[in-house]
Amino acid sequence: MVLDSTSALPVMSFNSIAVKIEPQNLLLIPPIAIKRESQPTALPGPGVAKEPVNDFRTLLSAPDFARLQNFVYIDSKESLNEFSTFVDTLGIKKIHDWWRHKEMHEWIIPCLVKSQSPLSADVWDSTPSTTNTNEAQHAWTNTQTGIKLTLVEGLETGYQVDKTVADEIEASMRTGILSNPNNEIFHREARNSQCRSAQARKARESQAVSDESAELRLKIAAELEARRGSNARTKELNEQL
After folding, report:
1. What is the maximum span of the chain, computed from C-alpha positions, in angstroms?
2. Could you tell me the superkingdom of the organism this chain comes from (predicted)?
């Protein structure tokens, strides 16, 4: 979200559309009503952030490696400064360059370290550490525009999709009515609960089928063993004739 220089009103930007938000409407529409979210759609997870550090394992003692690997959990500015000093005292150029790269670009550390982020703790914790939301948005856009388009077709169809979304948001802000009335947090939680219940039910059903199959296999094995015993007994009796 940015400010319009001519009116100082917040503006929500899409790929090709900017929606001006009047002050009286700021509280009308919850963020979940907006298809293109204004908060980050993904933050790097600890595993992704730590991955480059694995290259330094053979260069450090176990305690130093563990401290380096856990930099994403730095909890204060003071701890961050102490960590920078720690990196300097290691005297290893490869590690020094890795950390200086993060310090050089002021946005990297706030994206990786929760305590240094301008996001509130609630927003940080509720922001996925995967790009699944973005991927879902791509899939949704593709359903609206189609795929394998020429450059001009892509621009034109993308513009129309953005304009439609912008019109929906403006209408919701003007009327206070969501374009999707089932998009409140209550509805999302209800759907999530239903999904979890369905998953649990399917797991139980799958386990029941698995148990039944195992029991049948045991019965088949017992029957085959009995048949082999019967055949052996029949052969023995025939030999006695």
Report:
1. 112
2. Eukaryota
Q: Environment class of residue 19 by beta-carbon count within 10 Å: exposed (0-12), middle (13-18) or buried (19+)?
A: buried
Give CA–CA dist 118/126, Å, rounded.
Answer: 14
Residues 98 and 82 grouped into a single domain? yes
3-state secondary structure 123-168: HHHHCCCCCHHHHHHHHHHHHHHCCCCCHHHHHHHHHHHHHHHHHH
For 171-223, how does the pLDDT look when each residue is reduced to its tens digit (9 = 90+)? Answer: 888 887 777 766 666 677 777 788 878 888 887 888 778 778 878 888 888 88
HSE, side-chain direction, 13 A CA sphere, residue 108:
10
Distance between CA 88 and CA 79 in Å, rounded?
14
Locate 153 and state its tokens.
Answer: 């077709």
pLDDT in tens, 132-181: 777 888 888 889 999 999 999 999 999 999 999 899 888 888 887 777 76
At residue 178, the 3 state secondary structure works out as coil
Does residue 94 contact residue 59 with C-beta atoms inside 8 Å? yes
One-letter amino acid at 92 equals I
Verdict on whether the full-model pTM lies above 0.90: no
Which residue carries 């997870």 as its tokens?
45
- CA dist 172 and 164 (Å) reads 12
Do residues 53 and 21 share a domain? no
Residue range(s) defining the domain that contains residue 118: 46-124
* 74 touches 80 (CB < 8 A): yes
Q: Do 119 and 79 share a domain, yes or no?
A: yes
DSSP-assigned letter for residue 241: -
